[in-house]
Amino acid sequence: MKRFAVFAAMAAWALAGHAQPGPDYPDLPPQAMVKAALFNHPDVQAAQSGVRAGDAVRRRLQAGVYETSLRVGGQQRSVKEDDNRRFGEWDVALERPLRLPAKAAIDQRLGDAEVGRMHTLLGDALHETERALLKSWFAWSRDSAAARQWREQAGLLREQLAIVEKRVRAGDAPRLEAGLAEAALAGAESGRYQADLKAQLAANELTQRFVGIALPAQLPVAQPQRLEEGVQFWREAILKNSHELAVARHEAQLAKMHGERANAETTPDPALGLRAASERGGAEKIVGLSLIIPFSGPARAARSEEMQALASAADRREAAALRKIALEADNAYAGAQAAYQGWQSAQTAAEKMRANADLMARAYALGEMPLAEVLSARRLALESALTATLARLDAAESCYRLLLDSHRLWALDDDGHED
Question: Exposed, middle or buried: residue 207 (CB in 10 Å: 0-12, 13-18, 19+)?
């Protein structure tokens, strides 16, 4: 199998730890196509709507829930000392609670933090969609590679059948061997049909889940590269760029702010009012100011304690997310290393099995090898080739997963915009 220079350049760039993403990769869809498919995905579009909602939350918090109230009253006054005369009276008042400056400052920070959280959730939705796309792409690649291997196997067995029939016609082989060769070919054709079906189903899932991804006519092939950087390098890179961890940190930050806000709420906001009234049929005019100061009760204190407890829980969830992602990063690195070693061993075995099967086929053509052993060697060679192909794709996917989680694969930044 040929080594692709572009893939080698990509690997060299990735291992150098550059911040900017590399070029298009030979065994992945082009970045422009990926970007279009990602931003057309419903999960990403839903997260974009969340960003707009976060901006509305910020504006709501900045404005506050403090609204001006209009109070209007009317009454009749009856005075016995004045021959039971009746006087029409009315009063009107405008009242508005006044948000204390400390609360306004907290609300401002809460609004900004909410917008940041929504942007992080957009980045997380984008990243999870990228993961799903990468997984679906390699699922299709595996099934397509298996179908190709079965087609090659059917072609080899078809050639083998032609040799057997030639020897049977020449009287150098019994007719029974032609039946064996035909049965082997029929089995390979059956395997090819099943593999083609699986490949078609995988292609349907990929192209329908990610609209805009066009599948190439020929399955691209590139050899994985060894990871030269150690586990510490990849762990730090993944932790630095983890959206899941960033979301947990935003949640903890917001929980602390809500705790501060609930604590500030133990000091109630005063309300200021402007009042005008007319009494005794307009004989008396009244204009005045009112100041309403609520008294804090046990409910406000309990609310503060509740939010403080929730903030502590959010801190623990952040710590748990940190441990989880660090463990996943270490496991992903170990998996990539093992996949690379497994692919090398499987590739060596497949090459030897293929050479042995070809040698035995030539020996059969010369009448030096029984057909049953040739067919058995072909079957073993196919199994080894399939194993090596799947191992190569596993190694490539593991490497790309590391690049993706460390934000070194596709040119999209944390906010879901092009870098």
Answer: middle
As beta bridge partners, residue 285 has 278
How far apart are the C-alpha atoms of 118 and 131, rounded to whole Å?
Answer: 20
**Which residues, listed in sequence order, are joined to residue 289 by a DSSP beta bridge?**
274
Q: Give the burial class of 361: count Cβ atoms within 10 A of its Cβ; 0-12 exposed, 13-18 middle, 19 or more buried.
A: buried
Long-range contacts of 70-74 (CB under 8 A, 24+ apart): 70/94, 71/95, 71/273
- Is residue 210 over pLDDT 70? yes
Amino acid at 12: A
Which amino acid type is present at position 107? Answer: D
Residue 37's closest CA among 221, 220, 206?
Answer: 206
- Rounded (5°) CA angle 146-151-155: 145
Rounded to 10 degrees, the C-alpha dihedral 376/381/382/385 comes to: 170
Residues 352-370: what's their mean pLDDT?
Answer: 84
Pick the closest to residue 28 from 396, 340, 336 (CA basis).
396
Domain 5-67+100-268+299-405 has CATH 1.20.1600.10: yes
280: left (phi over 0), alpha (psi -120 to 50) or beta: left
- Burial of residue 403, with CB atoms counted within 10 A of its CB: 0-12 exposed, 13-18 middle, 19 or more buried: buried
Q: Is residue 153 within a helix (H) or strand (E), and if so which, with residue range?
A: helix 101-170
How far is CA 18 from its chain centroid? 22
Rounded to whole angstroms, the Cα distance separating 139 from 136 reads 5
Comparing C-alpha atoms, which of 330, 126, 327 is closest to residue 243? Answer: 126
Cα dist. 215→169, 178, 242, 293, 316 in Å? 45, 39, 29, 69, 44
Cβ-contact 110, 257 below 8 angstroms: yes
Q: pLDDT confidence of 83, banded at 50, 70, 90? A: low
pTM above 0.70, yes or no: yes
Contact 262, 303 (CB under 8 A): yes
Q: With contact defined as beta carbons under 8 Å apart, do 358 and 377 qualify?
A: no
